[in-house]
Amino acid sequence: MYASLKSIGAYVPSRILSNADLEKMVDTSDEWIEKRTGIKERRIASAEESTSDLGTKAAEIAIARSGIAKEEIDLIICATLSPDHLCMPSTACIIAAKLGITNVMAYDISAACSGFVYMLSMAKAYIESGMKKKILLVGAEKISSVVDYTDRGTCILFGDGAGAAIIGATDNKNEAIVDVHASADGNYADYLITPGCGSKYPCSQETLDERLNFIKMKGNDVYKVAVKTLTNDVVDILQSNGLEASQVDHFIPHQANFRIIDAVREKLNFPIEKTVLTVEKYGNTSAASIPMAINDAYETGRIHKGDLMLLDTFGGGFTWASALVRFGGN
Ligand code: UT7
């Protein structure tokens, strides 16, 4: 029995934050943002919407497309760095309740932008071991809640959104999750961090005054490690599965910065036509980025049953992960 990605769904809030809007907020320009990142606009959730609302809407679409009844779901995992609540309950528990699913195992994972691919490795293990049968994975972010809109080095990059997938079982190898590699190096923790409001610097007037509750990033250092790691990761997973880049139908990288994606793509000799890009319209949506990109390719008719997708992601931790996945949906 193999694990299979049976369906995909995504949701973005309606409000658009354009580069022109950001020009009015910080010392930046549309030209700089587009040239350095490829981003033109991103979505921002309303004050009434939380991460679980975005995740629930994406999940409803994925469930409907899978053809299964929501009651069949026996595990819900949510990857997010912007949970509804800092400690508890988990956003996965809230999504379960909003979906009307009770009596289900549900928990969050923390792997920043690598969250969705990390979850794929867990789902694969649960299904292949027979422990679980129908798993809902949700990557959801109201990342605008932890972005400092006075910091031009970060606020131009991020956007809100959610993506979800149903993972089930199949006996058909041509519809299976082939392999997942996931790794981390905590020596880089300070490079991409929300320093405050955890146990190290608990929330206080001081942490808030110093804006330590927001994302801090050594952008250029992250950029260099990201390009190298994302490239090595792809070479590694292709080699260990005896595959060539030319056998991959869709390269679906984390949508952090067009320049990063393009550098990796060029190093791997991967054609742009086979590369899925959503960074221009959604920016970096962290744990939602990969499932949102899969969904975009699915909704535009690019992805078909059995197609081989190569996922590649990198984020805070540092964490990174890649996956070879044959699409198992219709
Ligand atoms: O999802 C997790 C992983 N995250 C990432 O992958 C993000 C990785 N990093 C990046 O995408 C890029 O490093 C950035 C887009 C954040 C920055 O681009 P960069 O080409 O690395 O620029 P830089 O940080 O080296 O800064 C170059 C200049 C600096 O000015 P000086 O010192 O040369 O005068 C910055 O102050 O650009 C300046 N700058 C800006 N100028 C206009 C930085 N941000 C902005 C801005 N608008 N928004």
Q: How do the strands and helices of this protein lay out in sequence?
A:
Elements (H helix, E strand, L loop, with lengths): L1 E10 L3 E4 H5 L6 H8 L3 E4 L6 H16 L8 E5 L11 H9 L5 E5 L5 H15 L5 E7 L10 H4 L5 E10 L6 E8 L7 E2 L11 H5 L6 E2 L1 H22 L9 E4 L4 H10 L11 H4 L6 H11 L8 E8 L3 E8 L4
Parallel strand pairs: 4-5, 4-6, 11-12
Antiparallel strand pairs: 1-7, 2-3, 6-7, 8-13, 9-10, 12-13
Helix pairs in contact: 3-4, 8-9
The structure holds oxa(dethia)-CoA.
The site of oxa(dethia)-CoA has 19 residues, from helix 2, helix 6, helix 8 and strand 12.
Please provide a brief summary of the model.
The protein is α/β, with parallel strands linked by helices and 330 residues long.
